[in-house]
Specification:
This protein has 298 residues and is of the alpha/beta class. Helix content is 41%, strand content 17%.
C-alpha cells in the first residue's frame, strides 16, 4: 500500500506515487478507462492525481472530472494537482495564437476557475506554475495565488520545471511556501542528480515530483545496450518488472522523490504501487545509475 508524504513543513500530504493524467484522453473509452484507473489507484494508496489544462489537447481535465464523479470515490480521500501557464494552439482554444506562456493574474485565475469546473470540484489541493515564463511578474503571481487561496479555490501552490534560482526568486515574493518543484527525473533525465535541484529540495525540505519517470515509455523500447542488460539483471534479482525497478530506484533517493506514473492502464498503476516494497541495495542503486549514465561515476 502506498503511503502519503508531506511535501514541505507546511505543505499537503500526497501519495508517494502519483497518478499522471496527461495521456488519459488518448485511449478508447477514456472515461470508463479512467474510472478503472482511479479505482485501482485509490485501492492501492495512490490517491493523488496530476493534471494540467493543456493535457490531451485541453481535454484531459474534463475526462478526469467525469470519470472521478462516476468512480464514487470520495473527494476528501484524494488530492487533485493541476498546472497552468502554457498556451498551446488548439482547435479547442481558437484564440491561442502560438505556443507560449502566460503567467498573468488574469490567466492564472481564469485557468484555475475553468479547471475547477472541469474537475467537478470546488477546490484543488495543489496548483503549479507549469513552466518558467520570462515575462512572469512575481507580484502578479502572488496576487493570483493569494486570491485563489483566500477564496478556498486552491489549498497549496508550487512550480514545475523551475531551476533552483527561479524557485528561490518566486518564493522570495510569496508569504507562504511553494511546496514542490515538479521536474523531469528518470534514467533518461539525470540532470537533477547533479545540478543542485535535488540538493536544494533536501536542504529546504521540499519533496520533488518526478515527471516521465519511465522516460515517457522509452524504458520499454528494449535494446541490447548495457543499460537494458543491467535493467533486466536487476528485474530478475528483485523479481519485479522494469517499471517497478525504476520506481524503486527513484524512491530510494533521499530527496523523497514522488514519481508520477503516466500509464493509462489500471493493472500498471497497481504494479507501480507495489514498487514501494522493493528495497534496492546501495550497490544495485549505483549499478543502475551507472548504466543510465552510460559511464562510471567520477
Ligand atoms: N510538469 C511537466 O512539465 C510534465 C511533463 C510531462 C508529464 N508530466 C506529468 O507526468 C506524468 C507522467 O509522464 P509520462 O506519461 O511521460 O510518464 P511515464 O510513466 O514515463 O510514461 C508513460 C508511458 O509509458 C507507457 N508504459 C508505462 N508502463 C508500461 C509498461 N509496463 N509497458 C509498456 N509501456 C508502459 C505508458 O503506456 P500505457 O498507457 O499503455 O501504460 C505511457 O505511454 C504525466 O501524466 C503528467 O501528469 C508533467
Amino acid at each position: 500500500m502506498v503511503k502519503k508524504v508531506q511535501l514541505s513543513s507546511d505543505g499537503p500530504e500526497l501519495s508517494r506515487i502519483v497518478a499522471g493524467m496527461w495521456r488519459i484522453s488518448e485511449v478508447d473509452h477514456s472515461v470508463n478507462n479512467t474510472v478503472s484507473m482511479i479505482e485501482a489507484a485509490v485501492a492501492n494508496g495512490i490517491t493523488t492525481f496530476d493534471n494540467a489544462d493543456i493535457y490531451g489537447d485541453y481535454s484531459a481535465e474534463e475526462v478526469f472530472g467525469e470519470a472521478f464523479e462516476k468512480s464514487g470515490v470520495a473527494r476528501d480521500q484524494v488530492q487533485f494537482v493541476a498546472k497552468y501557464n502554457i498556451i498551446l494552439p488548439s482547435s479547442n482554444r481558437p484564440s491561442n495564437e502560438l505556443h507560449m506562456y502566460n503567467t498573468s493574474f488574469e490567466h492564472i485565475v481564469k485557468s484555475v476557475e475553468n479547471s475547477l469546473k472541469l474537475h467537478r470540484t470546488d477546490y484543488l489541493d495543489l496548483a503549479l506554475i507549469h513552466r518558467p515564463d520570462p515575462l512572469m511578474v512575481p507580484q502578479e503571481v502572488v496576487k493570483a495565488m493569494e486570491e485563489l487561496k483566500n477564496d478556498g479555490k486552491v489549498k497549496y501552490f508550487g512550480v514545475s520545471n523551475f531551476s533552483v534560482r527561479q524557485f528561490e526568486m518566486l518564493q522570495s515574493f510569496i508569504p507562504f511556501q511553494l511546496v514542490t518543484n515538479q521536474i523531469e527525473i528518470s534514467p533518461f533525465a539525470l540532470d537533477s542528480f547533479t545540478n543542485g535541484d535535488l540538493d536544494y529540495c533536501i536542504e529546504h525540505n521540499r519533496k520533488p515530483m518526478a515527471w516521465s519517470p519511465l522516460g515517457g515509455g522509452k524504458l520499454f523500447q528494449s535494446g541490447d545496450s548495457e543499460f537494458f542488460r543491467v535493467l533486466n539483471l536487476l528485474c530478475d534479482r528483485y523479481d519485479c518488472t522494469q517499471d517497478q525497478l525504476v520506481f524503486a530506484w527513484l524512491i530510494k533517493h533521499p530527496a523523497s522523490i514522488l514519481p508520477i506514473t503516466g500509464t493509462t492502464k489500471a493493472d500498471r498503476i497497481v504494479a507501480a504501487a507495489r514498487a514501494v516494497g522493493i528495497q534496492l541495495t546501495r550497490e544495485d542503486w549505483f549499478r543502475f545509475y551507472v548504466a543510465a549514465r552510460g559511464e562510471d561515476v567520477p
